[in-house]
Write a structure and sequence with these properties.
elongated, Pdz3 Domain, 20% strand, alpha+beta, four-stranded antiparallel beta sheet, 403 residues
Length: 403
């Protein structure tokens, strides 16, 4: 019994410290995502049967005047909106029969009922309803980032080298302390955070770096200089034990130089939109590197890793937590757009095929595609969770208890 309690102590403490913020932010983003499906379905005249935060057994809920059941369910790791006529929440299967209220016997749908059934809608309307979920995640991220930039300002560290590490590529390229980093390849660098993010996704690829040499503190040559540079591939481990590959130039960031760049509403939305585009591009590039073997799949994290970061950002304050929520919202929208059956992107892929063919894919083909998609998603989920357990040292901890 004592051994069992020891084995449970680590995950229980982890959930206590980080589970609350994770469930809070995930439930909020799931609600936003599903609300996108819901509101566009309503606009298209489709009846919504249920709106659930979480899966499994209903904990509590209510039914609105339109007959939609709003509920919170037992497992708070996702959610769904179920449309009229669908036999499962993923809109993977449908039935054109309904049950009589009197004897619960099935009967064919009437013409009026088919008008509000999701599966009976034109392919364009179905696609609009499906894409609305990921789209609203992007819109939500842009709005909360823009709000932060207007009321708080955009965090900003001048891209100036506080120092140059000996033996690193920056020194070999001729950089000196107080030099200004202007661009990497064709990407403008306006903050030291831009440089960090750029190096995190470009690793050790040869680059062209544009700099301005310092002439005095806070002053630089008017003519920029472009140099070839080969970053050094290194691995860093955060305080949770998660390892990340990154490219190192040997440029030391300024200490205590955090500033807040003020924005009006227009510029705030512009820079918030740019940030969401950059997050998407960086995520896509990192996934491509994993597929090509350039980046280790050990960096693929799951629920535990997201929960750890959610709790960590929550401890850093409200602004940091809201910023993390925006990042997670973009990633939720991006992942759902991947062309994998069971995800929104998989449905869009099937609708595109339907549009090209002039008729839907056969029920058998759709069923096999959905089964393959489900198996793939389960594999990714298990693999990512195993990565988290290994890097959090929980596997080693359990082994030490039973050895």
């Amino acid at each position: 019994m004592e051994l069992l309690l020891d084995m449970l102590s680590v995950p229980v403490k982890f959930f206590k410290d980080y589970g609350g913020p994770f469930i809070l932010v995930l439930s909020l983003l799931v609600f936003v995502h599903e609300w996108g499906h819901y509101i566009v379905a309503r606009m298209c005249g489709v009846k919504v049967v249920s709106f659930s935060i979480g899966f499994g057994k209903e904990l509590f809920g209510w039914t609105d005047k339109r007959g939609c059941r709003w509920k919170f369910s037992l497992v708070p790791l996702g959610g769904y909106v179920q449309m009229f006529g669908d036999t499962d929440p993923a809109s993977a299967q449908h039935d054109d029969t309904v049950k009589n209220a009197a004897d619960d016997a099935p009967r064919p749908m009437t013409a009026e009922e088919r008008k509000v059934a999701f599966f009976a809608q034109p392919v364009g309307r179905r696609a609009a309803i499906v894409i609305a979920g990921p789209a609203i995640n992007y819109i939500f991220a842009i709005f909360i980032l823009a709000g932060l930039y207007v009321f708080q300002g955009q965090p900003y560290i001048p891209p100036v080298a506080a120092g140059i590490a000996e033996g690193y590529p920056a020194e070999q390229a001729g950089m000196r302390p107080d030099d200004l980093i202007v661009a990497m390849n064709d990407t403008e660098i306006v903050s030291f955070n831009d440089l960090r993010k750029f190096m995190a996704v470009n690793l050790d690829q040869p680059l062209k770096m544009t700099i301005k040499h310092s002439t005095a503190p806070g002053e630089w040559n008017s003519a920029p200089k472009t140099v070839d540079i080969q970053p050094r591939l290194e691995y860093e481990t955060d305080r949770f034990g998660f390892r990340h590959a990154t490219g190192r130039l040997g440029i030391v960031s300024p200490k205590g130089a955090m500033e807040m760049r003020e924005h009006n509403i227009a510029s705030a939305f512009w820079y918030a939109t740019l940030e969401t585009v950059n997050i998407t591009a960086d995520t896509l590039k990192a996934l491509g590197q994993m597929v090509l073997g350039i980046r280790s799949t050990d960096e693929l994290g799951g629920i535990l890793r997201i929960g750890a970061y959610a709790g960590d950002f929550a401890q850093k304050g409200l602004v940091a937590f809201i910023t993390f929520a925006a990042l997670l919202s973009v990633n939720l929208g991006f992942i759902n757009l991947l062309p994998i059956p069971m995800l929104d992107g998989g449905h869009l892929l099937m609708y595109a095929m339907e549009k090209i063919r002039g008729r839907p894919l056969s029920d058998m083909v759709q069923e096999y595609m959905l089964r393959v998609g489900l198996l793939f998603l389960l594999f990714i989920m298990v693999f990512a969770t195993w990565n988290d357990l290994v890097q959090l040292k929980l596997v080693d901890y359990v082994k030490s208890l039973i050895s």
